[in-house]
Amino acid sequence: MILVTGGAGFIGSNFVLDWLAQTGEPVVNLDKLTYAGNLGNLKSIRNDERHHFVKGDICDTAQVTALLTIHQPRAIVHFAAESHVDRSIHSPGSFITTNVNGTFSLLEAARAYWSGLGAASRDAFRFLHVSTDEVYGSLGADDAPFSENTPYAPNSPYSASKAGADHLVRAYHHTYGLPTLTTNCSNNYGPYHFPEKLIPLMITNAFAGKSLPIYGDGQQVRDWLYVGDHCTAIRRVLDDGRPGATYNIGGWNEKANLDVVHILCDMLDELASREDNKSYRTQIAYVTDRPGHDRRYAIDARKIERELGWKPAETFGSGIRKTVQWYLENQQWVRDIQSGDYLKWLDQNYSGRERVSA
Prior knowledge:
By secondary structure, the chain is of the alpha/beta class. The protein has a domain at 2-190 and 224-253 and 293-316: NAD(P)-binding Rossmann-like Domain (Rossmann fold). The protein has helices at 10-22, 61-71, 85-90, 92-115, 119-124, 157-176, 198-208, 227-240, 257-271, 302-308, 316-329, 331-337, 340-350, and strands at residues 2-5, 27-31, 51-55, 75-78, 126-132, 180-185, 187-189, 212-215, 221-226, 246-249, 254-256, 284-287. Strands 3-2-1-4-5-6-10 form a seven-stranded parallel β-sheet, with helices on both faces. Strands 7-9-11 form a three-stranded mixed β-sheet. It is globular, with a radius of gyration of 20 Å.
């Protein structure tokens, strides 16, 4: 079996569901169930004996050590992280605690466990750390995409904390020989995405008749990766990635935020039109940009294609249609997660931002 951390979050839960469907191999799922961790994401496997959920914190080395001792996983896939840039600007401390200290604690537990394995099990063991393209900083309009050799230049407390975690993972391989793998992905989207990020926020606000807040001029560019493609890539890296290596995972879909919102509005006009027949584009509102907002991210994903034969199956058009349809069909899921904490966060982040002209 494998141990997955953060397996009730957006990408983690998609990975757990995909893993069980594609491999059938049992999963121990450790998640602290903070605001973005949601057992509702895993409702379809609630009674699946292959899925063992444990509520816990990766900073709790004793708990992690006990899980490793009891379950003897052949791999750890580490998703657990605080992941929202805006939240890191308001409350950076929790990002350092989880992303840096938590990864350190997990590495220490993994190193002790791995060191005690028999030779064959030790050779087969893997520690896969899931990271982000934001560690590389910001690109200019004509700059080449991020490669695995791009120098780190994080610009937010979130990306700095993930960069710190990446460096720890690298150090544990080179110092102790722990067979680590690191993946740096571009912006994910798809089912079960907590509605504070751009795409799910726009969809849920559109349905609720609320404004669709666009930071600044909306021309910040991101490379968009459908979460199902990301899960497939992680499985490939876990199966055949070289210990100590880093793999960038991207969707080859660079789009400006405003263009993404326009595509979403047009698709919603087609699939779930407003009662007054006006376009959802009329709900777009420009708001003051966030501090230090990176202008462009782009991933060069040629290494993973060359070495492991992976490339994304979804275009942005096909992936975003699947995403919108999922949200249309799962309105109860949206209602269930719109808790008091979530609503308070939206108020905190957007109420102080005055509207600005396009």
